[in-house]
Structures are given as C-alpha cells and as structure tokens.
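During the reporting period the student researcher (J.K.) took over the structure-prediction task from the postdoctoral fellow and processed the backlog of single-chain submissions. One of the processed entries is reproduced below for the supervisory committee.
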Amino acid sequence: MTESPASRLRPPGRKWLVAAVVVLAAAGVLGWRLAAKTPERARGAQAPLAVVVATAESRDVPVLLEANGTATALQSVDLRSQITSTVKEVHIREGQSVRAGELLFTLDSGTEEANLRKAEAQVEKDRSDFSTAQRNLERQVELFNQKFISQAALDAARNQVDTLTGQLAIDRAAVEAARVALAYTRIRAPFAGRTGVINVRSGSLVQPTSNASPAGTPAMVTITQVDPIAIAFTLPERELAGLQRALAAGPVSATALVAPRDRLTGRIVFVDNAVDTTTGTIRIKAQFDNPGARLWPGMFVTVQVSPRTIRGATVVPAQAVQTGPHDRFVFVVGPDHRVAQRDVKLAYVERGFAVVDGIAPGARVVVEGAQNLRPGSLVAEAERPASGAAEESAKGEERKADKARGGKPA
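J.K. obtained the following structure tokens:
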C-alpha cells in the first residue's frame, strides 16, 4: 500500500504535542485550586482551641498516707484455773462487759479453807511453844548467872528458842500460801473488757493447764479489751524517716475511717524495730479511744496518717498532669496564648491536686482540653465552672470513691 502525498507532508509528533498541552493545562487548574484552599486550611489550623486553665500555687502540703489496717485488742487473756477444783458459781454472761477486778467465777473452796484453818492453828501452836521456850531461856540465864547451870544448858535453851522462831516463820508462810490458794477459788477480771465464750458451767471440773497444753483444754473464758483499741497497719519504708522525725517532735495523730461519715482520732504508739524485707514495709500501731465499741478486734479499717509536710510545694490540679511515653508533663500557657510542654516530676498526689517539680508557682497550666493540644498550639481559655458546682462535683466524686474503695495505701 502506497502513502498519499498529504500523509508524507504531516509532522509525526503533532499528536503527542497536543496531548502534552492538555495535561499541562489540567495540572495548572488543579494546582490553582489547591493553592486557593491552602490559606483556608492554614487559617483553620491557627484557630484557638478552648481549654480550662489553672494557676500553679505554692503552699505547704501535709502528706496524707492511707493504709488498710486491722483492729487488735490492746490486751486479751485466757482465764484458767490455778488449782484443781469444781466450779461453784458462774457470775457472768457471754459477751458481757466487765470491770477490772469484777468477780467472774467462784470455785469450791472447802479444801482450801480447811488448809488455811490448819495452817493458822499451827501458827498458834508455834506461838505458844515459842513463848514457853522464851520464858525457859530467861530462867536459864538467871541460873547461869548464879553459877547453878553450865554453859551447855544455857546454849540448849537458846537453841530451842531459835528453832521455834524459825518454825513460826515457816508456819506463817504456810498460812500465806493457804490464803493464796483460797484466793484462787475466786477468779476475777484482770482488766476491763468484754467476755467471750464461757466454756465451763457450775459443777465443771477445772484444773491447772497451760495455753500450750497438748490436751487442748479450752480456757474458762477469754477477756478482750476493746476500749481503748489498737489498729495495726503498714507503711512503706520510705516514709520511716519522716515518721521518726514527727514522733521525735511529739505525738503523731492517726484517723480511722470506721464509716464514710464516722471517724476516730488516735495516735501512733508503736513502730516496729525492723522493716519487712519481703514487702518493704514497716509495721505500725495506733491507739484509739473506742466508746460505744465502734471498732471491734479483727475488723478491717482504713487508717490515715500525716507524718510529714512538704514545705513550699508547687501544687497543680491532678487533672493537669499528663502521662507521656517517657515521663509526666503539663501544658503551660505562655503570654502569647500558645502552649509549651514541660516535663515534671510527680512528688505527691492526693484527691484533686498534685505536687510537682519542674514548673514555677504562678504558671498557668491546662486542666481540661489537653487531649487536642500539641506544643505551640494556640489556645483560648474557656469559661470555668462555677465554684459551687465544682465543689459539689468534687464531693460527689469523693463519695463515689469512698464507696468503691476498700482503702488504698498511699
């Protein structure tokens, strides 16, 4: 097939040239449209973000430590008989409050009373024999002075007096022993407390046994002191130095949270002499007056202690402290209303506020709205909630926390 003369004269790249022109024109239109939208996006990125801002304060902050504790009796004793006898009368009821020295049990005392009378009679006999020996010695001395008897006879009379003097002392001690045995038949409360289960009744045979008796003989009754009462709990070992300084300065108070609206105030009375190497804690005891028996031995109680105070602490709302991949930080609002990220060290946290190192008092920190911020973001402070509403909200959160929390160590 032969080409026409017209086809031989047409330039071969004309079609490609037309296509290139069309592409360039389309790219120009697209670039113009994108350039027109860029200022609008830039203007949108610079729009201020609404945030709530608070000012960092400087004040002294008492460190409040919270721990779970167990109420324990200051005194508890198992009462057992010290002689073999039978129970004559039980004077108490189970669960009764008793006073110190109150009569609890009376044992049969027939044998002990007979032994006491016998010992007292022996003392009377010794006194009579001693008086006779004393008078005989006086006569012997007169006869010796008149040279009617020998020295040996006088020494024998003196020896008789000395022997009866010793015997009289022995028998007087026997009387005291008999009286002590008789006193064992009347069992009294050693201190004020509350009785437990009574394991004997009238006619029961009782005899001396130890607490570690292999026979496992139960005590006649257990008396436990409930007022005052102690609460045993533990604190981290890092708080030991501050607690010791506080105790050296004077009594350290403790608060027992018996119920959400029921609190008892006491004082720390015991710090253990060693730290538990397994848990890194140290045992503490606090003593509380317990009128009405609001605390009971074995009860789990939340205890609050304030052993030290952070002087001149920088305080911010706890909500302002954010957690980053490496450390904690806050957003600080500058004079130009742009935020800067400041790394902080968290020294102490309590409900509602935190003590931090890394910013100066007076700095304005973002409390709400930080989730949308980046360093350099432009912000506008939003209207803050009314103080009354904020306070009521905080109280509501605290009540919810008290209800859901069984007590957490600080």
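The committee noted the following: The chain has four domains: 50-58+311-404, 66-73+226-308, 83-108+186-224, 109-184.
J.K. will present the remaining backlog at the next meeting.
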